[in-house]
Amino acid sequence: MTDFDTGPSDLAVLHGFAVARLAANHRTESESQDTARRVLSVLSSAGRLLATRRAPGASLRLPDVIEALRDWPDSELKSLLQDYEAYRRAGADGTAQAEQLAARVPAALVAAKTMIEESAPI
Fold first, then answer.
1. More exposed terminus of the chain, fewer Cβ within 10 Å: N or C?
2. Which backbone phi and psi does 12 adopt, to 5 degrees?
3. Per-residue b/e over 108-122, b at no fewer than 16 CB within 10 Å?
4. Within a 10 A sphere around the Cβ of 90, how many other Cβ atoms?
């Protein structure tokens, strides 16, 4: 499917949420963990959105989303989804690694949104 009428605005909303969460003042370790978890959830949502636009019957499991996007030209988003899946499979331990992954989400969403706006097929 190459028609992606609402995709850029959907990604913009997800991007705005991620940026706002990352910019918030985190007073405790728990708040930092929660922010990383929520921003990584935004990443998963973006991947699922793109995968289901490409293949409406696609599974929403993260490994299947990554597979559905394997030929997608935006390597930044795919790479981050793969790194996040590896982190999850390794037990999702370590706030520092989750925060590092979460910090990459806004740029990956901007890259995906820009690619879509430039009318590249997904």
1. N
2. -65, -40
3. bbbbbbebbeeeeeb
4. 10
Q: Encode pLDDT of 71-110 as tens digits.
A: 877 678 999 999 999 999 999 888 899 999 999 999 999 9
The DSSP call for residue 59 is -
DSSP string, 97-110: HHHHHHHHHHHHHH
* Burial class of residue 11 (count of CB atoms within 10 Å of its CB; 0-12, 13-18, 19+): buried
Answer yes or no: are the C-beta atoms of 84 and 47 closer than 8 Å: no
Quick one: tokens of 80?
A: 């981050």
pTM across the whole model: 0.85
DSSP string, 58-88: ---SHHHHHHHTTT-S-HHHHHHHHHHHHHH
Three-state secondary-structure class, residue 14: helix
Alpha-carbon Rg for the chain in angstroms: 14
